[in-house]
Design a protein that fits this description.
The chain has a domain of about 150 residues: Immunoglobulin-like. The strands form four sheets. Strands 1-3-12-8 form a four-stranded antiparallel β-sheet, with no helix packed on it. A hairpin with a 5-residue loop joins β5 and β6. The N terminus is likely disordered. The protein is elongated, with a radius of gyration of 28 Å. By secondary structure, the chain is mostly beta strands. About 10% of the residues lie in helices and about 30% in strands. It comes from Companilactobacillus versmoldensis DSM 14857 = KCTC 3814. Keywords: Signal.
Length: about 230
């Protein structure tokens, strides 16, 4: 009994395979479906830092920034890298009653990100502007914020990926903010994120209250973080 069941199954499968091998006539009005396939793999692990590109035209090499002349990039190597971030210079200003809005002197301020992964997982660029501290007096500026202004996101002409999104441009001193996020399947390959490029919406440092501050040269760290997923 068991043997006959196995034999019957074999005959049935053979019949089905034989039936499917016959060609079917196709009429002009019929619709058939075929498939196109492609496999995507991570590229080879880079053996050095990525090239830095002009934030005004990422098909051209980075020309440098007179306000940030010694910045050669981060030197990061990998599949997802933060290649370049600017030091921002806001000049010198007199202490007066009230607050201060200082515009950045940089002509080519930017961040550059390269995503060479094949999975299209997306990424997030975060920024925290720390309190500014006087180098001689130790006075602290904590009541204010960094305003990035209009952020110009560009890519080389060979990049066909969808663009990442601007999330925040006003960042209180001492706080992390997500400034640019690439959703899943976007932000691949090279992207320049330009600051201080729009005259009507520049990058500025806003200090809400100057009272009690002493004349000094104030310095605050800009902490940048690139995470490997959108948030």
């Amino acid at each position: 009994m068991r043997l006959s069941h196995k034999l019957f199954g074999g005959i049935l499968i053979g019949a089905l395979l034989s039936f499917s091998a016959f060609r079917q006539a196709v009429k002009a009005s019929d619709t058939l479906t075929t498939k196109a396939t492609v496999g995507l793999l991570d590229g080879p692990e880079p053996d050095g830092p990525n090239d830095i590109w002009d934030p005004y035209d990422p098909d051209d090499p980075y020309p440098g920034d007179p306000a940030d002349p010694d910045n050669k990039g981060t030197g990061s190597v990998g599949q997802l890298t933060l290649d370049y971030v600017s030091n921002l210079r806001f000049g010198s200003h007199e202490i007066r009653n009230g607050g201060l809005t200082a515009t950045a002197l940089n002509t080519h301020a930017m961040a550059q990100i390269t995503d060479g992964r094949g999975n299209g997982a997306g990424w997030t660029l975060q920024l925290r502007p720390d309190y500014l501290v006087g180098e001689q007096t130790g006075s602290v500026i904590g009541d204010g914020y960094l305003y990035l202004g209009s952020i110009m996101i560009r890519k080389p002409s060979t990049n066909v990926s969808s663009a990442p999104n601007v999330k925040a441009t006003r960042i209180p001193l001492g706080q992390w903010e997500n400034i640019v996020t690439a959703p899943v399947n976007s932000g691949k390959s090279v992207w320049t994120i330009g600051f201080n490029q729009v005259e009507s919406s520049p990058t500025t440092l806003v200090i809400n209250d100057l009272s009690g501050l002493k004349a000094d040269h104030y310095v605050g760290s800009l902490s940048w973080s690139l995470t490997n997923a959108p948030t």
